[in-house]
Amino acid sequence: MKIGIDLLWVKPQKSGGVEAYIRNLLDGFFEIKDKNEFVLITARDNHMTFNKYLEDSRFKKVICNICSSKVVKRLLWQNLRLNSVLKKNEIGICFEPIYSKPIINFCNKKFITTIHDLQALHYPEYFSVLKYLWLRFCWRKTIKSSVKIIAISNFVKDDIILKYHANPDKIQVIYNPIVIDKNICSFDKVSKKFNIEENNYYYTVAQLLPHKNLETLVEVIKKLKEKGISLPNKLLVSGVNGKSQGALISMIEKYNLKKNVILTGYIDNDERNILYKNCKAFLYSSVFEGFGMPPIEAMILGAKVISTNRTSIYEVTQGKALYVEDPYNVDEWIERIRHISELESNKLDFHIYNKKNIAEQYLKVFYDVM
Questions:
Q1: Alpha-carbon gap, residue 225 to 255, rounded angstroms
Q2: Where is the Glycosyl transferase family domain (predicted)?
Q3: Strand, helix or coil at 182?
Q4: What are phi and psi of 124, to 5 degrees?
Q5: Cα separation of 296 and 140, whole Å?
Q6: For 181-198, how does the pLDDT look when each residue is reduced to its tens digit (9 = 90+)?
Q7: Which of 37, 152, 237, 297 is buried deepest, with most CB atoms within 10 A?
Q8: What is the pTM of this model?
Q9: Tell me: the pLDDT tens digits for 265-316?
Q10: What domains can be seen in the chain, in order of their start residue?
């Protein structure tokens, strides 16, 4: 079976969680020794980052005359030219790891598309009017014209059915593959950098957006400090950009918490992993996630997690964290922190996120479609 994989959208080190998802999935395909042929459809500015797969003769690379960073041009190119690329390379199945498949299927190819969430329908204020309308339109066309939709959680599947009245039989839930390199750096490196001690700080990883609810965590730290509560009062937040960045910085300055709440910005995986491993608790305050990889990554590395139970989070963490019922209740967060020592770590079934296991599930979908 020849499988085309559309990678034109990947902006290396700028595509966030969806980039980690597709690279982990490709690694899973790479590990499975079958007779399938994978054609990686790449752009001028990202093709070099996929070269390692060419060590396996089953993987081929097609470099298209477009740049991933030129989003509007790339979308136009995909709609006008991708079908021709599929036809020229005799590709019968095209896998779209994100929503942006061609609106019209000129060559009658079979498209399988992963939808990660319908965030724009829940938070339209994050988007320009034009982009919001475009996303609504694209999701509708994608759901209708793909032969199969992969949803990354049962929450996303239910959301697609609710918002677009999609046929449930057309949607299959496959979790994201999660890969953690356990060869982490020395704690001394991050200890000096952020002025922290082992088991004496909280950690979170989140883009700086309103639905991540980071303001509540700042309020938690404020109360711990002001009331002299005998718990750590230091929080590290790893995340870049987002509509909440200015508000968070203002809160931190207003409450005089510059030494207590540290926005690390982008950090390397080895530093992130050692911060996971040595925190008092990983606090995940988000109220909307299609999947939510950070709390699972934290649990894989042995961190104890306190989270909300909203949208997909309880599902993908298998009910193995501590959960707040009201994500905005500062006192409830503090009460959960008091009882964090009662939580047993490493009780997740990690196999369900294994990249090879996930890749096998995708291959089964491809076989079924063929």
A1: 10
A2: 188-354
A3: coil
A4: -60, -20
A5: 30
A6: 877 788 998 999 999 999
A7: 152
A8: 0.94
A9: 988 889 999 999 999 999 999 999 999 999 999 999 999 999 999 999 999 9
A10: 2-177+354-369 (3.40.50.2000), 187-350 (3.40.50.2000)
